[in-house]
Amino acid sequence: MLQSTLRLCALFFVIFVSHSGYANQGEAIYQQCVACHGVNAEGNTAMKSPALAGQSEAYLLRQLTHFKTGLRGKHPADIYGSQMTALVANLDDNALKEVSAYLSSLPSSVSEEQRSGDERKGYAYYQGKCGACHGGQAQGNPAFKAPRLAGLSSDYIERQMQYFREGIRGTDKTDKPGRQMAAMSRTVSDEQLHDILLFISQQD
């Protein structure tokens, strides 16, 4: 029993140290991202750059890998995505893991947007169309590979919804979560999205 406990503790220690090491190295790598995404990875609406702090590590790694391999950011209409493909081109797999671990370890960003809309409808639309995957409070759900939406700017979410609707994102057959979003995006009207964004902007 004692040996089993010691082995478990040792395994936990190795995992903890490994993850901590990734995060520490990731902070150094992230410095080349600060100009667009902010010192604290809080995002920059003027630069069209989303908040990254506190986002799911697995989601961040998957999207960075998609930028690197061309699954995302290669469409001519995705101007901001093409900038990301260039930026990650020289980062190896370990670097992507390290920066993803670092960003996920940061305190989550909180939206300070003031939006108009119908709160009651926004709640109902969100829970009916988004909550099952992205969580009841837009906190994300790694089990469904669904990112945290709380803290993201409405401008960024709206642009990504447009990309999914128009086939700019989420068309590759190997990107199952992306294809699911593309299909779902076409069930959301502009009026519904307006109220959904109000709900998301109110979540911590």
From TrEMBL:
SUPFAM superfamilies linked to this entry: Cytochrome c
Annotated ranges, domain Cytochrome c: 21-107, 117-204
PANTHER family hit by this protein: CBB3-TYPE CYTOCHROME C OXIDASE SUBUNIT FIXP, CYTOCHROME C4
Pfam families: Cytochrom_C
Residues that hold heme c 2 according to the record: 130, 133-134, 181
Subcellular location: Periplasm
An example molecular function term from Gene Ontology annotations: iron ion binding
Signal peptide interval: 1-23
UniProt entry keywords in alphabetical sequence: Electron transport, Heme, Iron, Metal-binding, Periplasm, Signal, Transport
Annotated Gene Ontology cellular component terms: periplasmic space
Protein name: Cytochrome C
InterPro entries associated with the record: Cyt_c-like_dom (IPR009056), Cyt_c-like_dom_sf (IPR036909), Cytochrome_c4-like (IPR024167), Cytochrome_c_Oxidase_Subunit (IPR050597)
Residues where heme c 1 binds: 33, 36-37, 84
Chief location bin: periplasm
Post-translational modifications: Binds 2 heme c groups covalently per subunit.
Keyword field contains S-adenosyl-L-methionine: no
Highest taxon listed in the record's lineage: Bacteria
